[in-house]
Amino acid sequence: MNLRLPPQPGEWIDRSRPMAFRFEGRDYQGYFGDLISSALWANGVHMQGRSFKYHRPRGIYSLAGHDANAVFEDETRTNIRGDQVGLRSGMDLRAVNTRGGLDRDRLSIVDRFSKLMPVGFYYKAFHTPRWLFPRYEKQIRQIAGLGAIRAGRTAQLTPKGYGFCQLLVVGAGPSGLSAALAAADQGVDVLLVDEHAHLGGSLSWQSGGDEKSREVYQELVNLVQAHQRITVRTKTQVAGCYADLWVALVDDVRLTKLRAQAMVVASGVMEQPAVFGNNDLPGVMLASAAQRLIHLYAVKPWQQCVTLAANSDGYRAALDLHRAGISVAAVVDLRDDAGDCYFAAQVRQAGIRVLMGSMIYEAVPGAGKRSIRGAVVCPLGEDGCRRESQSQVIDCDGIAMSVGWAPAGAPLYQVGGKFSYDPTVEQLVPRELPRNVFAAGRVRGVFGLDDRLMDGRRAGLEAAQKLGHGSDELPAKISVVGPAPSHPYPIFRHTKKKNFVELDEDLHFIDLVNAHQEGFDNIELIKRYSTVGMGPSQGKIANMNAVRVLARLNGDSIDQTGTTTSRPFHQPVPFEYLAGRRFHPTRRTPMHRWHQKTQAEFIHAGSWLRPEYYANAGQDRETSILQEARHVREYAGLMDVSTLGKIEVAGPDAVTFLERIYTGRFAKQTTGKLRYVLACDEMGVVIDDGVAVRLSDNHFYVTATTSGAAAVYREMLRWALIWDLDVQLVDVTGHLAAMNLAGPQSREVLQKLTSVDVSPEGFPFLGVRRGEVAGVPASLMRVGFVGELGYEIHVPAGYAAHVWEEIMRAGASSKVRPFGVEAQRLLRLEKGHLIVGQDTDALTNPYEANMAWAVARKKQFFVGQRTLQILNERPLTRKLVGVKMAPGYRGPFPEESHLIIEQGEMIGRVTSFAPQSTLGYGLGLVFVHPDRSEAGTKVRICVDRGAEIEAEIAPTPFYDPDDLRQK
Amino acid sequence: MSTAIPRTSPIEHLLNGITQVGPRQTEVRLASPWTDGPPDNTALQNLLLGDLSGSTTKFGVKGPRAASFLESQGVQLPADIYATAAYGVEGLVAKLAEQEYILETAVNDPVLEQLESGLSESPAGLLRVEHQEATFLLCGRRANEVMLQVCALDMSQVHPGTLVLTRAAVTSCAILREPWPEVLAYRIWVDASLAEYLWETLSTIIG
Lengths: 967, 207
Known about the structure:
The complex is a heterodimer. Chain A is α+β, with helices and mostly antiparallel strands. Chain A has seven domains: 1-119, 2Fe-2S iron-sulphur cluster binding domain, sarcosine oxidase, alpha subunit, N-terminal domain (Ubiquitin-like (UB roll)); 161-270 and 406-466, FAD/NAD(P)-binding domain; 273-403, FAD/NAD(P)-binding domain; 491-576, BFD-like [2Fe-2S]-binding domain (Arc Repressor Mutant, subunit A), CATH 1.10.10.1100; 592-642 and 735-828, Probable tRNA modification gtpase trme, domain 1 (Gyrase A, domain 2, 2-Layer Sandwich), CATH 3.30.1360; 645-731, Alpha-Beta Plaits; 875-967, Aminomethyltransferase beta-barrel domains (Elongation Factor Tu (Ef-tu), domain 3). In chain A, 23% of the residues lie in helices and 27% in strands. In chain A, the strands form twelve sheets. In chain A, strands 8, 9, 10, 11, 12, 13 and 26 form a seven-stranded mixed beta sheet that branches. In chain A, strands 38-39-40-37-31-41 form a six-stranded mixed beta sheet, sandwiched between helices. In chain A, strands 42-45-44-43-46-47 form a six-stranded antiparallel beta barrel. The mean pLDDT of chain A is 94. By secondary structure, chain B is of the alpha+beta class. Chain B folds into two domains: 12-53 and 133-206, 2-Layer Sandwich (Gyrase A, domain 2); 58-129, Aminomethyltransferase beta-barrel domains (Alpha-Beta Plaits). Chain B contains five helices and twelve strands. Chain B has helices at 41-46, 66-72, 111-118, 143-150, 195-206; strands at 20-24, 26-30, 48-51, 56-62, 84-87, 91-97, 100-106, 127-129, 134-139, 163-168, 171-177, 185-190. In chain B, strands 1-2-3-9-12-11-10 form a seven-stranded antiparallel beta sheet. The longest helix of chain B is centred in the last third of the chain and has 12 residues, at 195-206. Chain B is globular and about 50 Å long. Mean pLDDT of chain B is 85; it is low at 22-27 and 31-38. The chains are: A alpha+beta, B alpha+beta.
């Protein structure tokens, strides 16, 4: 069946660009510019989806994204909105939420049991027995829902963006166009957005033969497109509005975070359905949808229809249908009097029957409820009830509903606007708006074309004035006169239900009545109990009718009843848009490329990438690590320690500052020497460690741990401000690279590259020297973290790769090789050195960690001092000690966080453990109860799968206990 | 420092095979899509991403005597914090704080040695600040489109010649809108350790 009309003036389709596509396994053709739904309807496909709960056939309803009847999926995407997404060539679509396809959906049987599933059915039916609920839940989840997520799908990087504008105008209908022009003429830069592909709003599709509207449309669009100060973004939704006019714009590519200085909302209205029997079946649609089909997509909605009207728009729609060649069997008007309506007169003049004071009781379903074949029409009595005895069936395959409108006011609600009900227009209209936010047009209850143009101009000028442009004199606000465009209660009971208030969630009128009877008499409560307005459409065509129903049930006014809260997002937004492009900064050292070339395996250390170890062909990870460690012990190794935090502290108060930040003393530290530093927080918890180098009387250079560097620097800045000390702080972490040359051969290697005297006498342990290494200015430090003779070499990052390569070259004859983080961890473990964050936790104080020697208790003050004084008076509850396995042990080894158990009670835990070491046995560090911390004590460690193994508390250092090698 | 040692850009390895051009005498290495030889002026106006890290160097100094020290070396300073002043043909000086300045110039500029020697004795009131940031140049008519995808500030509204400390692609950066009349250009300083990440991010966005 081909329902494509001859070319229509201003149609949005491009007939020169036909597009083939598939739906439910069948081939169809549409045109560029079609929506998926319009293309399907043009091909005679009226059933485009199944409903959420009862799996009832559904077709085009609003054709504006205000319902979720037509939701599709393809091989890569799901929940594609058929009435919003443009047709693309080659699409292969199917409806979501079916079993066995749209035509033969096996779950359509559920519709027959709808009486057994009243509102609140889930809450009442499945709460006992509780143990069965998971099964119920599983079944319900399988049956209900829309499209399925394909977990294996390749993630798409969607660019997110920021945007800025002086004035954002939302909606490009007559009011929005007028507002944009008025503001731009005053010198304001305007961003005009509209969700549709073309400008014009309702001027594009709501004609009724009114030639003036077309002329106005063309003139406005031409002016806007030619205006230098107006930027237009079509196919762009205002998905959410936040404080300070932070607006989320969503187009078909991305989400834009827009900052606007002012906003005019001319977003118009959303047509609302009437509630009558079978008002959900394919063939029943909003009149505006039928008009869109005709004017925008040149598609014939039906052959013969009945128009249900309660305003002049219904008559205008009847005229549009009539002119498009559709037989309009009758206009059924809910009102007794159409007033002085130009379009009503035109309808009568066209010979169309008009039934005043009448209603549609139900749509007569066609075969399989996939269409309708008539409308049961009844007169309304003075009491507003139907006169059943006078009912008649009018043959038709379509019903167009035009009974009222609700404001598309989400942007206004979300920025804090207040609405109240205006009985003049039977519509909620903005009562209070935040600063720099304005409303215009139908969203404000202004419906006449001339009035909307004036109202838009008024809003544009007001906005311009607020932004400092234009004159002080502003036009007065439009006062609304004439018949209300909306019916106060277009809702009718039906004896057999199926008169839907909410299509997304399959809610009948009686569901709301029952919920009310059960005590849910507040709009927010009834929403949550019945789920009205909680579907994908967010109640765009349901909420207003639900409010009207509840108001009548409570005997309240609409204002007393209130509305539910409008929260972002107003329209469904794909998750990929929210995720956006991934920004995960990764820091790399200057030697990263060298590490890569040398088969380094990398690990993440905070935001840094560090070589974990260097892979050797034919060797597993553990062997490679052990070999690197042995090499350092026997020859020399070079490690990239650029990730260490590096902070310069200078100024007259540098010493005072450091004495307060760290637990140790610095006043008597000799220039050219370094000291170990330990930092605690106010609770006495160890938060970081490193070394402090005294470069001159008032100049220090301190290092921090890789993961703690940023926090330490931040804390330093904070304390420097609080203490008001004359001290300069510079974080040079990324500016200086560092490398650790360690091992018995290290001195010999280094001496080849520097004129600094690196002899034991010239450069003793804990000494610091400045000089050139391989021609590059460097700071050299004698440190011993890994327990061997070692030098830390700090150089400017831009020259570090050169220095590294020169050391490797110079050390070739001395067998220098690189070693990674894991080898370093093993080597320091053999020395019993802790790593903050690894061997300490969020409660560890220096006494527990055997670091009392690093705390200068007699200092005047340092951060955490008071707490440590108190803790020092109390007995320890745990102690960090060494632990080792017997040489030759072959059983399962402990891992970090394994518990130490005694008589079923936890008495400690493992913080670090190396199953293999250069010493030939497994060793580690553990926290254990002080009573069990004596060297030689046997403890039992609970390892994986509940097995318990025996280990022995051992003194540290395990290796070179007299520290002879590092000196 | 011996000038024989080449200063290495942190993204040196990413630049192999990328077109090179000198829009303002200083060498600019360009990311794709200009792989078919040097871009003409149209391409330059359109969108270019360049790396100046290997050809420029920075000198930082802070302290109560920072301004007088630089002025004594013939460096003209900007008056306001975050303002910049031209230095020589290609260089610039920026005021980072009340008592802190940074100078960026060609890597072989003799003034660097002069400045370094002035600080060799660690005079009181002066602290030499190591600066090894990477320097990228994003320029062309579409540069703002790229900036709008990575930066929450409206850089197009920033006064040319003003340095902005902000975040680009969630990394801390200093961005200068160049006061060049002929082309829209942003100079981006980013920590050397994050240079590869930011370069790749910007390159991906450029496409």
